[in-house]
Amino acid sequence: MKILRLNKVPFDELIDCFLLAFKEYHLEIPTDKMYYQKRWSAAKVDYNLSYGMLINGQLVGFIIHAIDNRFGKKTAFNTGTGVIPDFRGNGISKLIYDYAINDLRNHGIEKCILEVIQENKNAIKIYQRSGFKICKEYQCFSGNINIKSRDEINLKKVSKEDFNWDNTFNQEFYSWDFQKETIIERNYDYYYVIHDNQLESYFIYNEENKYVAQFDLLADNNNAWERLFQGIKLISNNVKIVNVDTRLLEKLEIINKVEIPTTVNQYEMKLEIN
């Protein structure tokens, strides 16, 4: 039994272990290796600060960390923890985390965060035993938009360079993969919704996976939320909206109003280590 850094593990071996560990996950996950290479690169995964467990030369468990300065703290985001089925029940995740937390602290990491499906009680208990506490609740949605608004709107597509991040709100409510630092590393399209010659709202969309990564109002006009989703529907009727913070009541209200089905609920958990 040996814990090592994942920069010592060939990428294909890591992915094979990852896919086996998530084979019976709550949600169907992509199996394309290139998808993970792109996603983890955008999220700023650091394999030198990610860890695995070897038993008899086989990788049987892992914790994959993205590392970045977010909201003033050097943070490690757990973008994937897993143990392959034959080795579960042996406390492997806890052993890896005990090692990882000390090593992350030694490398100046101030905070660790992760996301976990609320129904995954076993994983939540493991994280709590490692010192993590629930700090946010998220809801996820996927499906068709049912919108009745027929107001006159225009969509303005802008480049990543011309999008005005200074004019956006609630950035601290987004989860790691949908924060600015991750979005700008991936292939997203940026749209403004214009009504009565005013930039009224915006959304950021990925055509490949149908993610609406961010959306919000720029002007709190009557029926502006409906016009925002009217604009989203012009681009795609079927969308995925992941990790809407449950404190954002207006967002949840409009998502329910346009009848996009709920998929899962998640927690964000955090551990302050420095």
Automatic annotation (TrEMBL):
It comes from the Bacteria. It comes from Flammeovirga kamogawensis. Residues 1-151 form the N-acetyltransferase domain. Pfam families: Acetyltransf_1 (PF00583). CDD domains: NAT_SF. InterPro entries: Acyl_CoA_acyltransferase, GNAT_dom, YpeA/RimI_acetyltransf. The keyword Transferase applies. The lineage of its organism: Bacteria, Pseudomonadati, Bacteroidota, Cytophagia, Cytophagales. This is GNAT family N-acetyltransferase.
